[in-house]
Specification:
Blueprint: H1 2-38, E1 40-52, E2 61-63, E3 68-75, H2 76-85, E4 92-96, E5 103-104, E6 111-115, H3 120-126, E7 131-136, E8 140-144, E9 149-156, E10 159-163, E11 167-169, E12 174-176, E13 179-184, H4 186-190, E14 195-196, E15 200-205, E16 209-214, E17 221-223, E18 227-232, E19 234-249, E20 256-260, E21 263-271, E22 284-288, H5 289-293, E23 299-301, E24 303-306, E25 311-317, E26 320-326, E27 328-329, E28 332-333
Parallel strand pairs: 1-4, 9-14, 10-15, 19-22
Antiparallel strand pairs: 1-2, 1-3, 3-7, 5-6, 6-8, 9-13, 11-19, 12-18, 13-17, 16-18, 19-21, 20-26, 21-25, 22-24, 23-26, 27-28
């Protein structure tokens, strides 16, 4: 019995030692692998290049005919991923270039080339943290940009904004660019009059805002831009009102028009902090004689043609006044015409 117990103990110890050895070996291999993969290696990398360029009358995107060949230094981890874990088509870098950077290829319709020296810095930025570029082996990249149906449409910003009490937009929101080129099938493109951004939302604004907004994609259409920069000037205001005399303009010689009432009251919002107080002399209210004299209702619309900068949401009360036309005849006035 003692011999059997001793044999069992020996086998148990031996088995335990084997397990410990194998675990230690596995840990050592993992540590060794991590150390090896952490080292830097020089290698030649190949990348597909997708180029976006807003060329007039042509598609906006094209994939390079040949890969971008780069000689550089990267960790074993990145090298392993680049060689074995990317798609069969390879890794793709995306760039944007102005049309002026592309040059037509002689003898090849719709083909254009770009010098790789013009995208080297952009490539370095995209690969920063993964690869240090020593040099780019390729000197040019060729792209095919077929002709397509195209037109320009305005861009409108979707916005849901509210303002803090006594604050308001001081001008219209600006969007840059305010229009984009779109291309695709003629029937699809012709049906599009404008494009819109994603909705931006802000509440209780009291300061000017600016930012970027993506343009909403449209099925079957390519766009020359995928986002816009917007800016809205927001400021504080005070409400004011004052009375203005109304004059008649364009009055025919020998005629006379009487307005009832002869003055109107204007209400408006004024940018807060104006150095000089506004007075009635800063505005001008009038009615147009030719419009007023032909009015079947006997009413004349009051118009404002002089309004200082920094004045918003101006309203006139009343918006229409009664008019009486006096036409003299041989030194004597005829009966008033309503």
């Amino acid at each position: 019995m003692a011999y059997e117990d001793q044999d069992k103990g020996f086998r148990a110890n031996w088995g335990g030692n084997v397990i410990v050895f194998l675990l230690s070996l596995m840990v050592a291999l993992v540590v060794w692998g991590v150390m090896k993969l952490s080292l830097q290696y020089r290698y030649v990398f190949h990348y597909n290049v997708q180029l976006t360029s807003p060329m007039e009358g042509r598609v906006f995107q094209s994939l390079s005919q040949d890969p971008l060949t780069v000689r550089g230094t990267a960790s074993g981890f990145y090298l392993l991923r680049h060689k074995y874990f990317t798609s069969k088509k390879g890794e793709t870098l995306t760039f944007r270039a102005e049309p002026s950077a592309l040059r037509p290829m002689n003898g090849k319709e719709d083909a254009f080339y770009i010098l790789t020296s013009q995208i080297k810095d952009k490539a370095a930025q995209k690969l920063d943290g993964y690869l240090t570029i020593d040099d780019i082996v390729s000197d040019t990249l060729v792209f095919v940009f077929p002709k397509t149906y195209q037109k320009k449409v305005p861009v409108f910003l979707k916005a849901d904004l509210s303002f803090k009490q006594q604050y308001m937009p001081l001008d219209r929101v600006s969007v840059k660019p305010d229009s984009v080129l779109i291309n695709g099938q003629e029937s699809v493109v012709d049906a599009i009059d404008s494009v819109f951004t994603e909705k931006i939302t802000a509440r209780s604004l009291k300061r000017s805002i600016q930012g970027e907004a993506d343009i909403e994609a449209v099925a079957g259409v390519q766009m020359s831009e995928d986002k816009v920069v917007y800016h809205l000037n927001v400021g504080r205001y005070v409400g004011r009102s004052m009375d203005l005399p109304v004059e008649v303009r364009g009055q025919e010689e020998g005629s006379r028009m009487i307005l009832v009432p002869s003055s109107v009251r204007i209400s408006f919002k004024e940018e807060y902090g104006r150095k000089r107080n506004l007075s009635p002399q800063d505005f001008a209210a009038y009615v147009d004689y030719s419009q007023a004299v032909t009015s079947s209702s006997g009413k004349a619309k009051v118009l404002i043609d002089k309004s200082p900068e920094g004045v918003f949401e101006l309203r006139v009360e009343p918006a229409f006044v009664d008019r009486v036309v006096m036409i003299p005849d041989e030194g004597k006035d005829k009966q008033p015409q309503n």
